[in-house]
Amino acid sequence: MDLQLKGKTALILGGSKGLGRGVADALAAEGVAVALVARGQEGLSRAVSEITSRGAKAAGFAADLANWPSIEDAANAARKQLGAIDILLNNSGGPPPSGVAGVSAKVWEEQFNAMVLPLFRITDLLLGDMRARKWGRILNVASMSVVEPIATIGVSNTLRSAIVGWAKTLATETARDGITVNTLLPGPIATDRTVQLSRAAAARENISVEQAIKRSADSIPVGRLGTPAEFGAVAAFLASPLAAYVTGSLIRVDGGAIRSV
User: Fold this and answer.
1) 9-187+228-252 CATH, one of 3.40.50.40, 3.40.50.720, 3.40.630.30, 2.60.40.1930
2) Domain locations in the chain?
């Protein structure tokens, strides 16, 4: 299927690996020029090299979501090099495992400033161009935990839920400008984050990391972890003109892991 995305430009936060890289690969395959933003220059350079080797257009920009000036500089450099941004993937890392009781105010503030606030700010930075062109796609990566909270990642449950509320409100405000805003809810997908959480579970329960990952996979109706490529395929469709009537939605990419309807 032709997703009618050729000639568009995307800015992808966390684009050098994991879910962000899966989205970058899917969009690049559709003819989208992709600007990848991530902290590590080595990973960025590798990702850009691999994408451009397939004939796609890509550029990398090192920045840290916890350092707003670096993100603003990266976004402006991407626009200067590749042109106005049509598609934005808001994708932030997750905090260490924890509950919510007894979490210090400092942790809440630091994680909000790293996971949530920069997504709001970069969206506002790019929204004007999208409105002027009457076309744009804003995709947010949250988690299945905003529907079915996971006890061991309480801070993440809370802060990603804030993104959901913001995104739903923004979708209403931008719908008549030709801009859609949707939030993807990944379940267990084979990424570094899944390994991190499995390592924490293994330490708590005195089992191996491999056992923890297998247990997670066995609990999913499809019987396995998802892949970044599968996640990227869903994101690419939502970014396309074909999905113009989908906005303000939570899209589950979880292999059926969420038990509620």
Assistant:
1) 3.40.50.720
2) 9-187+228-252, 188-225
Residue 122 CA, chain-centre distance (Å), reads: 13
What is the SS3 assignment for 153?
strand
Question: CB-based contacts of 50: which residues, under 8 Å, 6+ apart?
Answer: none
**Tens digits of per-residue pLDDT, 25-72?**
999 999 999 999 999 999 999 999 999 999 999 999 999 999 999 999
**Which tokens hold the place of 95?**
């905090």
Do residues 10 and 34 touch, judged by C-beta distance below 8 A? yes
Helices 154-174, 105-115: inter-axial angle, 10-degree rounding: 40
Q: How far apart are CA 15 and CA 43, in angstroms?
A: 9
Residues sharing a CB contact under 8 Å with residue 196, sequence separation 6 or more, in sequence order: none
Residue pair 189/226 in contact by the 8 Å Cβ criterion: yes
Which structure tokens are listed for 23? 């989205």
CA distances from 107 to 81, 97, 100 (A): 36, 12, 11
Tell me the C-alpha distance between 137 and 141, whole Å: 13
Q: How many helices and strands (H and E) does the chain possess? A: 9, 7
Query: 218: part of which helix (H) or strand (E)?
Result: helix 209-218
**What type of residue sits at position 113?**
N
pLDDT in tens, 110-157: 999 999 999 999 999 999 999 999 999 999 999 999 999 999 999 999
Dihedral sign from CA coordinates of 199, 205, 209, 213: negative
* CA-CA-CA-CA torsion sign (40, 188, 190, 13): negative
